[in-house]
Amino acid sequence: AQKITQTQPGMFVQEKEAVTLDCTYDTSDPSYGLFWYKQPSSGEMIFLIYQGSYDQQNATEGRYSLNFQKARKSANLVISASQLGDSAMYFCAMREGSGGTSYGKLTFGQGTILTVHP
Amino acid sequence: DSGVTQTPKHLITATGQRVTLRCSPRSGDLSVYWYQQSLDQGLQFLIQYYNGEERAKGNILERFSAQQFPDLHSELNLSSLELGDSALYFCASSFRDRGDEKLFFGSGTQLSVL
User: Fold this and answer.
1) Which of B44, B100, B105 sits opposite A50 (nearest CB)?
2) For residue B38, what is the nearest residue in chain A, using CA coordinates?
C-alpha cells in the first residue's frame, strides 16, 4: 500500500484565490511527522511546513497551513492568496516513528503540479 | 538558500563510468541524507550518515556507496552507471528545534548517463 497518496496530478487556481492540495497517508506508528515541500521548475526542494502527529493545532507558516485530520489520515496543504510564483510541484512526505537521529528519512508522495493563472 | 551545498549541479557521463557527488550540510547539522528523484520512481531515500557513521539505509543499489568525512561533508559514489541511474540526486540535512523538524535540501545534482 502507498504510504503517501497525492490524488491530484495537477491543480489550477486563479491568482489571489486559495487552493487545497490533498495528501493522505498510511502508517500504524502513533508517532510520525508530515511535511510539505515545493519544487519549482528550477528543481530545488523548498521546505514549506511540518506537522507532528501529536501536535494539537494545525501548523501554519505564512500563507501555508496544513489541514491535519488525524482520524482520516489526511494532511492537506492550504495555500491562501495564491501568487504566480506558487506555480510548482508540491510534495507531501512522511517520517514514521519518532525518528531518533533519522528524522530526515522521509517517504514522499508522487506530487501535485500547481498552476496559478493570472 | 537552504545552506546545503551540492556540487556539481550537472553531470554528464557514459554508461559503465563512476562519478562522485559531493554535499556539505548546513553549519552545525550532523546528519546528511541522500535522495534520488527519477521520473519512474519519484523521490526515494537512499542513505543517511550521522556524524560520520551510516545510520539508515533505503533503496540504495549495491553499485552506490556513500561516506561522511570528519568535516561532515558527504560524498555519494555511483559506479558501473546505467541509463536508469539518470536522475536528480539531492542531499539534505536536518534540523530539530523544540519538536519542530525541518529537512533542508540542497539544489541537487542532475546526473545524465548517456
Assistant:
1) B100
2) A110
